[in-house]
Each structure stands twice: as structure tokens, then as C-alpha cells.
Amino acid sequence: MTIAVTGATGQLGRLIIESLKSKVAADGIVALVRSPEKAGDLGVEARAFDYSRADQLAPALAGVDTLMLVSSSEIGQRAVQHRNVIEAAKQAGVGRIVYTSVLHADTSPLDLAAEHRETEAALAEAGIPTTILRNGWYSENYAGSIQGALMSGALVGSAGEGRVSSAARADYAEAAATVLTSAGHEGKTYELAGDVAWTLPNLAAEISLQTGRDIPHKDLPEADYAAVLKGAGVPEGFAHAIAGWDVAASKGALFDDGHQLSALIGRPTTPLAQTVKMVLA
């Protein structure tokens, strides 16, 4: 069986490749990347694969049995890019697709969810056996917030007391590798999230504990938080997006207590404290 992973030089893609290599032979893994010359350290075959180059995709999928479609990083272009990949998979005779969506994509208030809903619908229409991995937030998403808190003396955000069921990116990668290399997942949708939910005040307390400093949490209106991010050098559009995601978190968008992630990987998810320690190091 040949398993191909899109976006294989990205942060999640690399971890999926590494996890796969612990489960199957490397010669059965294909890295699909924009620049194959940058994938030499992955230790697997690399093929040129650009989500936007529809003419390039089907040939790159030749001989692929299972496709790991890691969602594109280009917000606003994802739906079209993913349709390109799905159509190419049909043309190439790919037998199964596993897709990384977002937590509770069908009901999520996150603006990110719309393109994931479109992609999930396209997969359903394609008729290829599919597994949907609705990934929650990565704990590493808060690395910038942690560093910013150390510089400014406070952890700021707009999530209020919203609970975040995050997990380490490696946890999600391991779950993907498990689904890719085992049977019984076709037609299933998994809501993947960390075992223990936390709030931004909890994160501020953890930073304070590990640094020995008093790092309070300050909840800001959405526009004010976006302004803080912009002042820290975050591009304006992205700053407003991040602030909007925090507001969505305050409404429960990032919370889940189903423990499907830890069930898939067969162990507890990585504690927030461990990710904070990694960032501080």
C-alpha cells in the first residue's frame, strides 16, 4: 500500500511522515510537496504537488492507494485548492482519502470552518471512501502569545473564560498516521481535541508558574486585541483573524470533551504544561 501526504514539508505534514515511518516501511510513503528539493530530509519519495496546479496533481498521485489531504495553509483559497486535489484523486484512482478539517466544522462559529465545510461536501460528492479528522487547536498556536506575554508582562486575548481543548501538533499527527495505517475508519468523522480543556487565565497561571514571574491575563475587546497584535508586527488582516478566533473560542468553538484523539493514539494527549515548557526553552 502506498500512502501519500500533501503538505509534507509543513509543520503537521512532517510530523505525519515521521509517525508513518514508525508504522510502515518508508518506501510505501510519498511526500507531496511544492518543492521536492526541500524534502530530502524526510527520507521518503518526494513528488512535486501544488494545490493550485490542477494539471500537475493527478500524475503525482499515480499508484497512490491512500491520500492524506492536509488542508492548505492558504486561507481563502482552500476550497478551490482542495477540490483540485479531490478531482485529481478521482482521476488517479486513489482508493481512500483522509482529510484534516476543523473541530465541529458543521456547527463551528470560526470563520475558518466555511472552507472546511465546502471540502467535506466535495469529498462526500466524490464518492471516494473518506475519513474526516476534525482537528482542534494546536497548543503550539499559543507560542507567540506566550512569548508576547513574557515581553509585555501580561497575556492578552479576547477569549474570556472560553475553554480550549488543545493538544500538541504531534498528537494530531499520530492520530492521522493511525487512521492511515489501520482499518475500520472509512466513512467516519472524528472530533479530535485534547483531553484537558483550559482557559487563557489558566495559561497565564502556567506561564507564571514556570517562569516564577507574575504574568496576569488581560481580556480585551476584539478590536483592541487586534490592535495589540498589529502593533506587535502581525499583518492587519491576520491580526483581525486571530482576534476573531479568540472571540469564537469564548463561544465554545475550541472546546470538546469527547476524548476521541486520545482514544485513537492510545494514550493521554500532551499536557499544556509540556508545550509551555517547550516554548519557554
Report the CATH C-level class of the largest domain.
Alpha Beta
CATH superfamily of the largest domain: NAD(P)-binding Rossmann-like Domain
Question: Cα-atom Rg, whole angstroms?
Answer: 19 Å
The H-and-E topology, N to C, reads as EHEEHEHEHEHEHEHEHHHH
InterPro entries: NAD(P)-bd_dom, NAD(P)-bd_dom_sf, NmrA-type_oxidoreductase
Organism: Sphingomonas endophytica
Protein name: NmrA family transcriptional regulator
Structure overview:
The protein has 281 residues and is of the alpha/beta class. The chain folds into two domains: 3-135, Rossmann fold (3-Layer(aba) Sandwich); 140-164 and 195-256 and 270-280, UDP-galactose 4-epimerase, domain 1. Helix content is 43%, strand content 14%. The protein contains eleven helices and nine strands. The protein has helices spanning 11-21, 54-60, 78-92, 113-126, 143-152, 169-181, 200-211, 222-231, 236-250, 260-265, 272-280; strands at 3-6, 29-33, 45-48, 66-69, 96-102, 130-135, 155-157, 189-192, 217-219. The strands form two sheets. A seven-stranded parallel sheet has the order 3-2-1-4-5-6-8, with helices on both faces. The chain is globular and about 55 Å long. It comes from Sphingomonas endophytica. InterPro entries: NAD(P)-bd_dom, NAD(P)-bd_dom_sf, NmrA-type_oxidoreductase. It holds the Pfam family NAD_binding_10. Residues 7-181 form the NAD(P)-binding domain.
